[in-house]
Every structure is written in structure tokens, then in C-alpha cells.
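Reviewer 2 asked us to include a model.

Predict the structure of this chain.
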Amino acid sequence: MSEIESPFPFGPPRPGQQLVTDAEILDACCGGRMWWWDKEHPLACYVDKRTRPAGTISQKPLWKVEPDVQADFRSLPFPDDHFQLVLFDPPHQVRSRAGTGINAEQYGSWQPGEREDALALGFAECWRVLAPGGTLVFKWAGRVTEVEETFPVTPVVGTRPRGRKEGPAWVVFYKPLAEAQEVAA
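Predicted model (C-alpha cells):
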């Protein structure tokens, strides 16, 4: 694969291209960076398949999607075992008319039947680019039990569903250092 150095090009990478960065943190589907305290964190690389200028959502005129790298989380253009922390907050809504409504615009949505395969591919890619000794944080705004089978490994800690109420769930995975030793052996 060919490599290019930082700074990142704005736009989709060419097929077979692998991006090299000094970033230690990957936000695999950054959207409007709404859960970031520092939306321009110096150690982070922000990825999203979309770009949206400020003003796209009239009710939220400052909201925008401006990734460092425009790419789909199901096919990340980074080397294996690269990032120390990977954040994964994919779209959770399934709509028969994808892309309709303010929530779909802001968070994205899936067509019926495509969410689980997309999540499985996304988890596989996030796990691939996560370095041994690294942490993967998954945020989900639906029923975690519906997507549990897509998890790359058993979570270390996280929010468990209680009764009928399902709110945002946080699930944390750790990639053991032993995986680096297995590859080296």
C-alpha cells in the first residue's frame, strides 16, 4: 500500500492508500464531535464518511461535520495496531427512508437489514487499528442487547440494560498486550 504523511488530505483516500499519522486517538465516526470536550484535540484523528457545512441543520446552525479524513468506518485507511484509543459511536437508527429527519442528518441512519453487518465490519476495523494495550470505547443509543453479537470481544466494563429503560450505553473493550506478543512470535 502507498503511504502519505500527515497532515491528512481532506477527502476520501484513494483505494489501497494507507494513511500514516501521529495521532494516538481515533474517532471512527466523528459526526459533529458532540461528545468531545476539545473538538480539536491535538492527539485525535477525526474520521467520518460525511462532510456537512455549518448551517446544514437550521435548528443547529453551528453544527457541522468536518473530519480530518473522509472515510467509512467499515474500511479505515490506517495501519494495523496504530491507535491507543479508538472511539466508536456509529449511527443506531434504522429507517426505511434513510437520511430523513433532523436526527438522521445529525447522527446518520441505516436501511432495514444493514445495521448489524455494518457494525460487525466497523468493530472489526476499529479492533484492527487499535494497538495492543489500547482501549476501544463504544457508545450506543439503543438496546445494547440488539448489537452485542457484533462485539469483537467481551467488554471489560460498560452500561448494562436495566428493565425497560434504555439510554445511552457506554461499553469499553481492552486489547491485551499479549496480542502484540502473539504477532511477534
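The CA atoms of residues 176 and 182 lie 10 Å apart. The beta strands are 2-4, 17-19, 25-27, 44-48, 69-70, 83-88, 130-140, 157-158, 169-174. We have added this to the supplementary material.
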